Amino acid sequence: MAGQGLSTDEVQGIREALAAGRKPRVVFTAAAGQMAGQVGQVVELTDPAVSEEFVVVRFGRDELPFSPTDVAVAPRGAGRKVAAEPKPEVEEPAAPAEPEFVLDTPRVPAPRQEEPKVEQQVEAKPARRPVKAAKPKGPAGLTVTLAYAEGEWTVAAQQGAKALAKPYVVKPAEALRMVALVDVPGVQEAVEQIMAAERAEAEQQAEKLRAELAEIEARLAELREAR
């Protein structure tokens, strides 16, 4: 009977076995749906931070990702007897189809000179549990970060645990165009405050430079008159 899934220690044991070149056997639990009770081999453990289905199991010719609750450590000898002594395929007789509805029609005494009445009680058949289909392994998530620090705007990109682009400096105008795509009032206000502070600082520096330039030009004029 299938277990209740992999514990944290069992996941760590599988990770160590894969590092040693082994492929541990696992059995599918009831959480795997119609595959419950079947035996497969773990061939890879991906990043659990990217997807909860990080246990890649080889089942026949397929390699599909599952969550730790879908599989359990296979008991010793699981799956070996079937491989050593294959049983011939015998077509089992089809089970009689179950009726979708059961009609219970108790006899009710009819009044005189009236047609008999029949009360029908309908018993609904319970819904079957849906079979869980194997989910294909999708690409890792992509994150693009626009940041401001120490008077510079930078952009970085990362997919899963892999850095696609290290932080590089962009012009304020380009940063504003990127922020304009984010229609969030709080973000827009924060960027406007940063740009206002930068403009004020730039105006102060320009005013200081203009004052220094005026002093230099006055000094130059005095030196020309002294000739």
Report on the structure:
This protein is an alpha+beta fold and about 230 residues long. Among the domains are: about 10-75, SH3 type barrels; about 140-175, no CATH class; about 180-225. The protein contains 4 helices and 10 strands, in the order αβββββαβββββαα. It has helices at about 10-20, 80-85, 170-180, 185-225; strands at about 25-30, 40-45, 55-60, 60-65, 70-75, 100-105, 120-125, 140-150, 150-160, 160-170. The strands form 3 sheets. It has a 5-stranded antiparallel beta sheet with strand order 4-3-2-1-5. The longest helix is centred in the last third of the chain and has 41 residues, at about 185-225. The chain is rod-shaped, with a radius of gyration of 37 Å. The termini are far apart.
Taking Cα atoms only, what radius of gyration do you get, to the nearest Å? 37 Å
Helix content, binned percent: 25-40%
CATH topology of the domain at 8-77: SH3 type barrels
Shape category = rod-shaped
> Averaging pLDDT over every residue, what do you get?
78
Tell me which CATH architecture of the domain at 8-77 applies here.
Roll
Number of strands: 10
TL;DR of this structure?
The protein has 227 residues and is an alpha+beta fold. It is 30% helix and 25% strand. The strands form three sheets. It has a five-stranded antiparallel sheet.
